[in-house]
Amino acid sequence: xxxxxxxxxxxxxxxxxxxxxxxxxxxxxxxxxxxxxxxxxxxxxxxxxxxxxxxxxxxxxxxxxxxxxxxxxxxxxxxxxxxxxxxxxxxxxxxxxxxxxxxxxxxxxxxxxxxxxxxxxxxxxxxxxxxxxxxxxxxxxxxxxxxxxxxxxxxxxxxxxxxxxxxxxxxxxxxxxxxxxxxxxxxxxxxxxxxxxxxxxxxxxxxxxxxxxxxxxxxxxxxxxxxxxxxxxxxxxxxxxxxxxxxxxxxxxxxxxxxxxxxxxxxxxxxxxxxxxxxxxxxxxxxxxxxxxxxxxxxxxxxxxxxxxxxxxxxxxxxxxxxxxxxxxxxxxxxxxxxx
Length: 340
Known about the structure:
Layout (H helix, E strand, L loop, with lengths): L1 H4 L3 E9 L4 H11 L8 E8 L5 H14 L4 E7 L2 H5 L4 E4 L11 H22 L5 E4 L4 H10 L9 E3 L2 H15 L6 E2 L2 E3 L7 E3 L4 E4 L2 E4 H5 L2 H5 L1 H7 L1 H9 L5 H16 L7 E6 L11 E9 L2 E4 L7 H26 L2
Parallel strand pairs: 1-2, 1-4, 2-3, 4-5, 5-6
Antiparallel strand pairs: 6-12, 7-10, 8-9, 10-11, 12-13, 13-14
Helix pairs in contact: 2-12, 5-6, 5-13, 6-13, 7-10
């Protein structure tokens, strides 16, 4: 029977940028272990980072070797974008310029425009045209917009950014409030930007209690909490983690990346949606082309925005606020590209 264990699919190539960083360190094992692409899907990892951390990256490569995982068919550490993006099937953009003390948002955008212009150009030139792209490095939505802008030959629907961490945070808050498993909560939504303007929305969410599906609003019976403390906690959770750890979220971010890519690769459950930053098609009156977090369903690798959800005045106001911020960010980023 042991021969069947080795009956793996041909390897896919997965690039991780910022590969010497702490999120990648938590992420790599889950990818290599089959938690994302399946227990029969072998992988070749391309690990990209900047030249000064190549020795650190070499240590990560040693550790990957030492896990002795059979799905790993190769590991390519590099500081060269051509090598990193050559023929990749999946591109996980974890690396970005972090915001430093005293840095204006404009300075952060300028620095990241340089990075994502260069990487977008390389992605366009060297990656497979059907590459699935996930941007994690912040500001994730706008970095994804710039990346897509400089990779015009790759379909727009192949570009996504991470809001699954916010989605998971929202589920966890509801589950804790109701003292149920997070798995019992479904169809929460993160609208908009992965920032403190995001709108965590549970107006369509349900929770399974004693085998019965109940709307979250009915189960919690506290509209004030749902519209205030709940929203604020999810919006500011990243900052709370930084205040406590003195480092940004890594374990939970890596788990969210795996959830996002696994669902994209393998599909969402019936009657269930997840949150993803995708290139807007104009749904819900969001500017077309903007990278905006929506509720989505996925089948056979195709991501579809969930349509016809009712928005009351409060929800519309919350969505408009995060939409406005994203339009401003996009315009600032485009100015930065023009001044390059």
